[in-house]
Each structure stands twice: as C-alpha cells, then as structure tokens.
Design goal:
The chain is mostly beta strands. The chain has 1 helix and 8 strands; from the N terminus they run H-E-E-E-E-E-E-E-E.
Length: 183
C-alpha cells in the first residue's frame, strides 16, 4: 500500500529539456550467421532529451535522436557498407541513484521506437532500394554519470525486430553501442 502511495505522489522537481550528442558504434546481427561477418560502423547521434521526474529517484526520459547505424562487410579485399539513418524515440525509465551533492549516477532501461530516414549501400547496387523495414524496435539498457546538468551516458541498443524486408528465414537486427554527452 505504501509503495502505491509513493509511486502515485509526484516529485516536486520539474521536467527538464536537454541536448544529447555522441557517437554510435553500430553493427548488424544476422541470424543464421553468414560466412562473412559484419564489422561495426561508427556514426553520429544527436537530439533532444525530455526528462519528467516521477519521484526523487525515478523519472521517465523521452528522447528524439537522429542516429547513424549500419555495418561494414569485408570479403576478398572488397568493402561493402550498409548505411542506415534513423530517428530514434527511446522511452526510458531512469533511476537516479543517490549521490553526494550535484554528482550522481543514473540507470536507463526501456524500449526505443526507431524510424528509418534513409538507407544506402556502398558501393551502390544500382536501383536496389527499400530493403530495410521503415520501423524497428530495440531494447535500450544503459547508465551514466551526471554532474549538475552535465551528463555522460553509455547505452546499448539490442534490436528486437527484423529490419530486412523479404528476408525469408534470415533475421537481421541492429546492435548499437552509444556514448552520449549532454546538458
């Protein structure tokens, strides 16, 4: 009963809007495994963060991020790149662990709904387009350190949905490690 009252009582802190900028190290998980394994692709990630406190230690964070993902494949000296751009909308539960003064640690977990903005294959495969689904869902797990309004986050996005159209029995999902700094 006390837990229900505690969760239903709003925090006195106000919502915060911030900016996040960072790097993604993205890769594709192909199941069943192919003979040629993909290498990671480094890309840019940036956007807005909206954090709504529910309690002193718990808040809900909603982000809107532009994120570059994809992978590289190397075979016989040839390099093939898959360049995917998304708008990611993570909806994260944020647990703010008690710290001393303005310094604290936070944990993040929740789903992310990601909408494909563009796809490109390098070298270009001619008129082959629209091989990647328009939307994907990922599970985001991470954490970070915040000092006053400045923060550093480490996040891992585990793709839950198959992004390859007409894949038959193959399943292709995104795997993304991100480091973000923000205010």
């Amino acid at each position: 009963m006390l837990a229900v009252i505690w969760l239903a009582t709003p925090s006195t802190a106000s919502a915060q809007v911030g900016l996040l900028v960072g790097l993604n190290s993205a890769n594709l998980k192909i199941d069943p495994e192919e003979a040629v394994k993909p290498d990671s692709r480094t890309g840019f990630v940036a956007g807005l963060s909206f954090n709504v406190p529910v309690q002193d230690i718990f808040s809900v964070e909603l982000d809107a991020l532009f994120a570059q993902k994809g992978a590289k494949f190397s075979e016989g000296g040839d390099i093939f790149k898959v360049k995917l751009n998304y708008v990611d909308i993570p909806v994260l539960g944020r647990v703010n662990l008690p710290g001393s003064g303005p310094v604290g640690v936070h944990l993040l977990v929740g789903p992310s709904f990601n909408f494909k903005v563009s796809e490109k294959f390098d070298p270009d495969e001619g008129n082959v387009e629209d091989q990647v689904e328009k939307m994907e869902t990922t599970l985001v797990i991470g954490g970070g350190v915040h000092v006053s309004r400045f923060r550093i986050d480490l996040r891992y996005g585990l793709g839950l949905s198959n992004i390859e159209k007409d894949s038959g029995s193959d399943k292709v999902t995104n795997r993304v490690f991100s480091i973000l700094v923000g205010i």
